[in-house]
């Protein structure tokens, strides 16, 4: 399987939708390798893997560790790494941390959250050889500042602001854009307003592709299921059933039997 390039990703705009999914380790990255166009090492790992209430305490060291694991598991898949909260608060910090990603991992690009207000950072990174994925709409890293996770695009003013955000990020040099938690009709307008692919999450199907957190999509994360998440398998139940069967066989000494001993 040939790895997608930035050029081939951009050619998918308005044609074949792009399939993006999060991955945090080599095991799952290897499983996703055949179906995913892009793997996102999301700071969402801070919640599903770390058990934290939000993404804010994720660190650069964590993201680099997990990115390397993902790249080992799926070397033929395009990989984007989230820049965690506080790592791109200035031109200097953004470039230093993005350079760390490039030097210390095989990642193909980094992702930063924010619209027009972050365009200058996107431009600074792309001007220094860093491929950038933008992220607008609902911003998980702004969770505390906004007082929760709030759907965007509920008014014409918000719709026009999102369009301006997307255009600013595109002009700054981003090659792709994630739009999260936005009314479907507005997300469609946003996708139509730019020439780069727009990947939706909780933003309807009028965009250029979709991304989901894998633990949500596989039904592994039980505490909360967002409205926009379709669970393609009840992974938590399947795992619990398997572990229960193992525990029962251990306790009744039916495992290991003659088939599993030397």
The assigned structural class equals: alpha/beta
Spatial arrangement of strands, main beta sheet = 1-2-3-4-5-6-7-8
- Give me the Rg, rounded: 20 Å
Tally of helical runs: 11
Helical fraction? 25-40%
Average pLDDT taken over every residue: 96
Distance between the termini: 38 Å
Tell me the major beta sheet. 8 strands, parallel, barrel
One letter per element, helices H and strands E, the order comes to HEHEHHEHEHEHHEHEEHH
Low-confidence stretches: none
Kindly report the oligomeric state of this protein: single chain
How would you describe what is shown here?
By secondary structure, the chain is of the alpha/beta class. 39% of the residues lie in helices and 14% in strands. The protein is built from eleven helices and eight strands. It has helices at residues 6-10, 26-32, 45-48, 60-73, 91-104, 119-126, 143-146, 156-171, 184-192, 214-217, 235-251; strands at residues 18-22, 38-41, 78-82, 109-111, 132-137, 176-180, 198-201, 209-212. The chain has an eight-stranded parallel beta barrel, surrounded by five helices. Strand 6, helix 9 (184-192) and strand 7 (198-201) form a beta-alpha-beta unit. The model has no long low-confidence stretch (mean pLDDT 96).
């Amino acid at each position: 399987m040939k790895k997608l390039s930035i050029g081939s990703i951009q050619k998918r705009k308005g044609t074949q939708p792009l399939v993006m999914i999060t991955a945090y380790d080599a095991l799952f990255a290897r499983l996703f390798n055949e179906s995913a166009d892009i793997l996102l090492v999301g700071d969402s790992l801070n919640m599903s893997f770390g058990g934290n209430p939000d993404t804010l305490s994720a660190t650069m060291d964590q993201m680099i560790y997990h990115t390397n694991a993902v790249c080992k598991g799926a070397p033929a898949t395009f990989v984007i790494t989230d820049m965690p909260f506080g790592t791109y608060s200035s031109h200097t910090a953004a470039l230093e941390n993005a350079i760390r990603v490039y030097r210390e991992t095989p990642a193909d690009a980094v992702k930063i959250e924010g619209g027009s207000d972050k365009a200058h950072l996107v431009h600074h990174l792309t001007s220094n050889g860093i491929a950038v994925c933008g992220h607008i709409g609902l911003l998980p890293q702004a969770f505390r500042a906004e007082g929760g996770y709030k759907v965007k695009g509920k008014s014409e003013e918000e719709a026009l602001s999102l369009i301006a955000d997307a255009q600013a990020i595109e002009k700054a040099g981003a090659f792709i854009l994630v739009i999260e938690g936005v009314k479907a009709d507005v997300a469609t307008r946003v996708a139509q307003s730019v020439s780069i692919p727009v990947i939706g999450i909780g933003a309807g199907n009028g965009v250029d592709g979709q991304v989901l957190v894998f633990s949500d999509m596989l039904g592994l994360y039980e505490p909360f299921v967002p409205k926009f998440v379709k669970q393609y398998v009840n992974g938590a139940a399947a795992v619990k059933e398997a572990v229960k069967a193992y525990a029962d066989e251990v306790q009744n000494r039916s495992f290991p039997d003659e088939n599993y001993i030397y």
